[in-house]
Amino acid sequence: MGTKNQTYGGAATHSSRDGRPFRHTSKSFQQELNTLAQLIGRKWNLVIIATLLNEGPMGFSKIESEVEGISNKVLAESLRTLEEHGVINRDILSERPFRVEYSLTKQGAAFEPLIERVRYGDLQVTSTDT
Asked: What residue stretches are annotated with the HTH hxlR-type domain (predicted)?
């Protein structure tokens, strides 16, 4: 099944993986895109995902040392958000001393092609920071 363009109710579409027309303008699709934009638009989320892709599972302190410039509070919030969206797993390794390890879920690993394109310069984004 390809991505043959067609029209569906006046909206441009292509075939989904199972061959059904996929409406780019459907309300649920737009909501999913907005949720994704909010998730990856947060300053540190993609950096955390890239770190876990590169380094593999790691604890809070290790992530904090790998992600230069992130505060303890922001890291905790970001990890919580990524966990709530099913991007990372939070596994308790031990109660005493308390140890937690974070790893990517299958959904989190799906960000790899995007991150790799940025890493190797295939996808260049102009910074607006001055």
From this structure: 31-130
pTM recorded for the entire structure: 0.73
Q: Which domain holds residue 115?
A: 42-119
**48, two tokens:** 């955390």
From the number of C-beta atoms within 10 Å of its C-beta (0-12, 13-18, 19+), residue 14 rates as: middle
Distance CA 72, CA 101 (A): 16
Query: Tens digit of pLDDT for each residue in 58-82?
Result: 999 999 999 999 999 999 999 999 9
The verdict on residue 128 lying in a domain is no
Q: Are residues 54 and 1 in the same domain?
A: no
Is 50 domain-assigned? yes
